[in-house]
Design goal:
17 helices, 429 residues, single chain
Length: 429
């Protein structure tokens, strides 16, 4: 057992550097070399002859107490809570590597952390801006980082053979065993990532390197290269980091925050990105449920808005077509109604013309009759004038006769009778 072997097993250079620093601090504090500390831990876990169970368990818990003392020492010497915890990880991971893990008691200060404000609060809007100025490889990294929420060490260790079939219907299930906690990350590849991966894989030149994001040699790119890439993209996208650190871990924090905001819950988010959860919670999160939660989460973490916009545009056009069809149907009904009304008006117009023609004929007939009546009235008026003139002559004659003396009147009557008699005699003869 050696520290060198343990450190060589750590693929992430930054993590390896942190473990080395923590181990050096611990052996300095305990006053013994690391190999001797390992031998002490091995001895503590070996039950001695004649030793009862309680004595054995107390001896086995020795380094748990030693690590807590070491943590208190670090705090007293000015280290922050988060830094003190990270420094203790060196000795704890060394023990874990050699199958001698130290389990800290519940509520131990060693496991406590505080929320730091040093990291940049990455949002999906920032990722969209970086995506716009990124090349194909960078876009693929951004999309997969958003989809998976993995730690940098697990992300960079992805091999091309680890990928599922990209011909399946997205979201495509994609599982990985995490290096740090040895738990399964139940990832899902979105349509965005699948499309990018197909193009990216077909354009790869180094076919001999089996890592998905390979370096120029036979290994994968480093986390330093990823950090430089992210900061370069942020600068191109004119994102103000305000003095804060933008690292790959910001994607993991964004993923877990979005899990809460989207309503799928922090437990499901941890299950998706490969973070340890309680065994009781693990039972209820099946692959089917996780797929649904992944779809729900993706609504909050969609990078390429044009896909969403195209969908919205199609939906909008569909609504417009439906509206136009409805209006066309209404116009058709109106046209039919107008056509029917026109036929009705034409029919009524013809009937009215016929009525007017009949009325004109009647009027002409009435006019002719009126003209005849007018001639009759005129003749009647003429005859009336003659009769009135005769009556007036008779009345004047009567008046003249009545003004004469009786003797004259009698003579006149006799004379009239004689004339009538004479006229009668002529008629008889």
């Amino acid at each position: 057992m050696s520290v060198r072997e343990f450190l060589n097993s750590v693929s992430n250079p930054r993590t390896r550097k942190g473990y080395r620093f923590g181990l050096n601090k611990f052996v300095e504090w305990v006053g013994k070399p690391a190999e001797e500390v390992l031998a002490m831990r091995q001895e503590d876990l070996t039950q001695k002859a004649g030793e009862n169970l309680i004595e054995y368990k107390n001896r086995a818990a020795r380094f748990e107490k030693e690590i807590e003392k070491f943590h208190s020492y670090l705090i007293e010497n000015g280290y922050s809570i988060n830094s003190a915890r990270n420094i203790t990880l060196g000795i704890r991971q060394l023990f874990r590597y050699y199958q001698m893990p130290v389990t800290m008691r519940s509520g131990s200060k060693v496991s406590q952390t505080v929320q730091t404000t040093k990291n940049f609060p990455l949002t999906i809007e920032h990722v969209r801006k970086m995506f716009e100025v990124a090349n194909l490889k960078e876009r693929t990294i951004l999309s997969l980082a958003v989809d998976t929420g993995l730690r940098i060490s697990d992300f960079l260790a992805i091999k091309k053979t680890d990928l599922p079939s990209l011909d399946e219907e997205p979201p495509i299930a994609f599982t990985l065993l995490t290096q740090k906690e040895k738990v399964t990350a139940n990832c899902f590849l979105s349509q965005e990532s699948v499309s990018l991966l197909k193009t990216y894989l077909s354009a790869l030149r180094n076919k001999n390197n089996f890592y998905l994001f390979s370096s120029n040699g036979k290994s994968h790119i480093s986390d330093e290269a990823i950090s430089k890439m992210l900061n370069r993209l942020a600068e191109r996208a004119q994102i103000d980091l305000n003095g804060k650190s933008l690292s790959f871990h910001c994607f993991r924090k964004m993923f877990l925050s979005a899990s809460i905001d989207s309503g799928i819950g922090l437990t499901a988010g941890k299950k998706l990105c490969g973070k340890a959860i309680a065994r009781s919670d693990d039972t209820y999160l099946t692959t089917v449920k996780l797929r649904k939660k992944s779809v729900q989460l993706k609504k909050f973490l969609t990078i390429k808005q044009s896909l969403k916009s195209e969908g919205q545009q199609v939906e909008k056009l569909g609504s417009l077509v439906a509206k136009l069809a409805e209006e066309l149907e209404q116009q058709k009904v109106v046209a039919q109604a107008v056509s029917g009304e026109n036929l009705k008006i034409r029919r009524e117009f013809k009937e009215r013309i016929a009525e007017l023609t009949e009325e004109v004929a009647v009027a002409r007939l009435v006019g002719e009759q009126a003209a005849k009546i007018g001639d009759g009235v005129k003749r009647w008026q003429e005859e009336k004038g003659e009769i009135e003139a005769k009556i007036a002559g008779i009345e004047n004659f009567q008046k003249l006769v009545l003004e004469q003396p009786d003797r004259v009147i009698l003579e006149f009557i006799k004379d009239v009778r004689r004339q009538f008699k004479e006229q009668g005699s002529r008629g008889t003869a």
